[in-house]
Amino acid sequence: MDLIGDRLSGAAMAALADGMGVLAAVPGSGGVLEDFEWLTANRAAERLFGHPLAGRRLRADDLQDGEGAGLFACLAECVAEKQAVRRLVIAPGGARWRIAAAPFDAGIAAPTVCVTLVELGPEIPAVPESDRAHRAKAEFLAHMSHELRTPLNAVLGFSEVLLAETFGPLGSPRYRSYAADIHASGTHLLSLIDGILDLSQSETARTEMQEEAINVADAARQVLAQVGDRAAARGVDIGEDLSGDLPLLYGDARALQRMLTNLLSNAVKFTPSGGQVMLSASPMPDGGIGLMVADTGAGIAEDEMARVMEPFGSAGMTAPRGANGAGIGLPVVKRLMEMHGGRLDLYSEPGAGTTAILMFPARRSLPHAAPHGITHSGARA
């Protein structure tokens, strides 16, 4: 065996493989190849198999569980063809091995093979080209959204300074009108950028929820106050029906505010003057929390419901003047609800208005009387 060890040392240095060994073919009755016997193996090879190898048999009859089956086939082909064989096989435990087997003169009568084994780890599924393109688009939108916010905030800030006439009168009344238009347009653009940022982050799994116990009624009233001026300017009556026995919601406060803002803004935007918008919230029969935004606006045709739930999709119905949007709001709400384990349901009929319902699962409901420091499922913050 010293001769084998010496020759194997030279082969190992040349091959630079992780695992290495020499096996001898063992013929059965009639000279048919029955199995192989490990003559020697280095420690790396033994680590791959999980036990010492020298003197062990690699038996064809014992390979029903798949252990070593690819290795045996590679060795058998090497002996039969009398030439080197390389293969990629699935090894025990699901890992992948790259196998290289070559005829080897071990100084014995039986055919022998020098084998090298390299562990590649489990196979990584290929990412479809369409998925890579989609991810690249989402990354680009997220980056551009961040870059656009800085100059846009400056535009809004300076327009507010002009409207307040901080450094003196503007002179012509037209200047004040222009400043108001700049501020209104900038605010609208900032809202679109925020929506694109939310959408791109959710698509690339970059959003990390900051979960906490949220008073749903308080959060809803804050959003109503923000949207109220817009509704009044359009002549839309906006109201609330918030149940007094709502549990706390364990979720992301910013995401909840974003969802309610999107739904209420859409409702106000697509409701003509004299119409109504109502925000309701109540406990669900299963212990979850349900929020509903209903309006008496233009409504959506049944065959267009799926389109408005897709990014940048919009319905083709006739909408009030100035009610066109980029088709971001509902997809953002849908993604944020999915992140909370809930769902968004949409019901609508042309000319009869639209109702959007947010349903949070019961596991996100918390009692108001939770002990101090307890946030969710007994876990301390």
Automatic annotation (TrEMBL):
Keywords: Kinase, Phosphoprotein, Transferase, Two-component regulatory system
PROSITE patterns in alphabetical order: HIS_KIN (PS50109)
Pfam families with a match to the protein in the record: HATPase_c (PF02518), HisKA (PF00512)
EC number: 2.7.13.3
Catalytic activity from the UniProt record: ATP + protein L-histidine = ADP + protein N-phospho-L-histidine
Entry-linked CDD domains: HisKA
Domain Histidine kinase: 143-364
Enzyme class: transferase
GO molecular function terms attached to this record: kinase activity
Protein name listed in UniProt: histidine kinase
Organism whose genome encodes this protein: Azospirillum isscasi
